[in-house]
Amino acid sequence: MTRHRLRRSLLAGACGLALVASLPTSASPAPRAAAPGAGASPAASDAASATKRWTTKNATALGTGGAVSSVDPEATHAGIEVLRKGGNAVDAAIATAAALGVTEPYSTGIGGGGYLVYYDAKSRKVSTLDGRETAPASIPRDVFIDPETGEPYPFTPDLVTSPASVGVPGTPATWERALDRWGTLSLRQALKPAERIARRGFVVDDTFREQTLQNKDRFAQVSTTADLYLPGGDAPAVGSVFRNPDLAATYDALGREGTKIIYKGRIGSDIVRTVQSPPKTADATLPFPKGYLEKSDLAAYSVVKHKPTKVRYRGLDVYSIAPSSSGGSTVGEALNILKTKKLSTLPRTEALHDYLDASSLAFADRNAYVGDPAFVDVPLKTLLSKGFARSRACAITDRALPTPTDPGALDGSGCTTAPPVGRNDTGTSTSHLVTSDRWGNVVSYTLTIEQTGGSGIVVPGRGFLLNNELTDFTPVYDAADPNRIEGGKRPRSSMAPTIVLKDGKPVYAVGSPGGATIITTVLQTLVNRIDLGMTLPEAVAAPRASARNTAPPAGSPAGAGAVTAAEPEFIEAYGDQLEALGYVLTPSGDSFTLNAQIGAVAALEFRKGGRVLAVAEPVRRGGGDAEVVRSR
Ligand code: GLU
């Protein structure tokens, strides 16, 4: 199908929608959601009255013609629909991401940012887009310090639910840039399936309700957010249909006018107004520290195109994202360290011991050396060098490496160390998706609004949440910390969208949400698949542990170390053996985690004859959905 015909066919697919709902024109303001208590909610109604909606999930799918895996069946089907109509992997990725903005609004959306990695089959080249949020130019160093106590505000809910933590969104610019550069669809066409889902609604599942309830107290303090997500004062019921007409109108306007409507236009003005004067309810008790976002910050935003990180591992080339994310450098360094070990021949406990310690060592270096390269001199080449990896690998003995361990000396002088710096952040939001097409192009894309529920602030009349990404900076300014707060800077991320090639052709695409556990989840999935003899579905489903160079909790006995968060199933399976080596396994989970699960992988494996195995989580986060264009 030609580019022109494809565009027509996708728009035609969306036209019926425009007929059944009267949309505001792009020039008129979007309608506001009704106030809670005003009779039946516009957002929730009986599922039975709705048109076809995608609710069935497949953890794996094998076939040809292209594939999509994401956490949500509506989003996966949006991508598959684009592929079926002749779109490519980039078109499908943006359609899937836009749909996630509707159905996974607490993890992703145009109010946030992310990183996209793209393999181009024709040139056999891997490229990346850094669509990370940036700090306002005038952000003060002490933005996260409570003037009353002189200490940082409590992270949750105070800092998280705060205009101060909202960075300039990078997701709209990422979508536009990716489509312009590699896609065949216009932004308008790529947004149409998502616009349709927002308008006709999707079926609320347990995860959506749980995530809403988890955020209920803070959402209730922001009128626009309460109106949209707490209709009638409660989280939408499981099985009801959730509609977001404001977001549908926003996507429509964004598609018609392009991202200038955000970076230089009226949606941008709304974002700035919302940050400067958040729509708090009269009885809000949270402090809502002041935000500094200005129109000039939006106008100054640009997506950055870095060279991908690349390491060679067991005959494969592992490509991922370079700083401002620490994902590619940290996974890459850990793989380089593990390359010095023969994991496939080791008993499982020993292989896991190497995995955990390699991860802790790489995290120590990440915390000390990685930040936004526009502001910090990141020694990326050294961090990804074999020599440096050897100087770090010698710290792994037959006992657990006590944590926190110091970062390595950059001159690679053996197991010497530099003083530790930096915070070891965790998080649980975000979403990862992977797509491929019949031509062999591949996308691995992780996007986020940071915390589950982001800043908790919905832009009035626009139907999307703003991010709280700036909480990824170290909250207390330290000139030696590469992740210190600075105006115009991107906070360090852990996102690690990854594509693995063999002889220039894709073998795997993988990524995950989960804050800093993203790094260990991607690393563990690769190790499981490449070294430990698991199939890709097994590698994804296997219980996880996340060693991030964590200090022992206060009150621990002297010498306690090697603190490692782990899923209960991991502790059950390997706890005794690893604790005998000196690990302190603690059940994963924090105040914003529904349960003790680590990550939510979406992955692809490329096989002979153009066949692709698409894999989603079978259980975590309620399971994801993997689909192919043609099953076989
Ligand atoms: N903000 C996190 C990061 O960029 C992602 C948040 C999450 O996955 O919970 O690493």
Features of this protein?
632 residues; alpha+beta; 12-stranded antiparallel beta sheet; 3-stranded antiparallel beta sheet; 20 helices; disordered N terminus; binds glutamic acid; acyltransferase; GGT_bact; signal; Glutathione hydrolase proenzyme
Summarize this structure briefly.
With 632 residues, this protein is of the alpha+beta class. Helix content is 33%, strand content 16%. The protein contains 20 helices and 18 strands.
Q: Indicate the radius of gyration in whole angstroms.
A: 23 Å
List segments where confidence is low: pLDDT < 50 over at least 5 consecutive residues.
Answer: 1-50, 590-594
How many structural domains does the protein architecture include? 1
Strand content: 15-25%
Classification by helices and strands: alpha+beta
Query: How would the global form be characterised?
Result: globular
The biggest sheet, with number of strands, parallel, antiparallel or mixed sense and barrel status, is:
12 strands, antiparallel
Task: Count the E strands.
Answer: 18
What compounds sit in this structure? glutamic acid
What is the residue-averaged pLDDT?
A: 90
Q: Percent range for helical residues?
A: 25-40%
Number of H/I helices: 20
Distance between the termini: 23 Å
What is this structure's SSE topology?
Layout: H1 3-20, E1 44-45, E2 60-70, H2 73-84, H3 89-103, E3 113-120, E4 125-131, H4 155-159, H5 171-182, H6 187-200, E5 202-203, H7 206-214, H8 216-219, H9 223-229, E6 241-242, H10 245-257, H11 260-263, H12 266-276, H13 295-299, E7 309-313, E8 316-320, H14 327-338, H15 348-369, H16 380-383, H17 386-393, E9 431-437, E10 442-448, E11 498-502, E12 505-511, H18 517-530, H19 536-541, E13 545-550, E14 563-566, H20 568-580, E15 584-587, E16 602-606, E17 612-616, E18 625-631
Parallel strand pairs: 14-15
Antiparallel strand pairs: 1-6, 2-9, 2-17, 2-18, 3-4, 3-10, 5-6, 7-8, 8-11, 9-10, 11-12, 12-16, 13-14, 16-17
Helix pairs in contact: 1-6, 2-3, 2-6, 3-6, 6-10, 14-15, 14-17, 14-18
The protein binds glutamic acid.
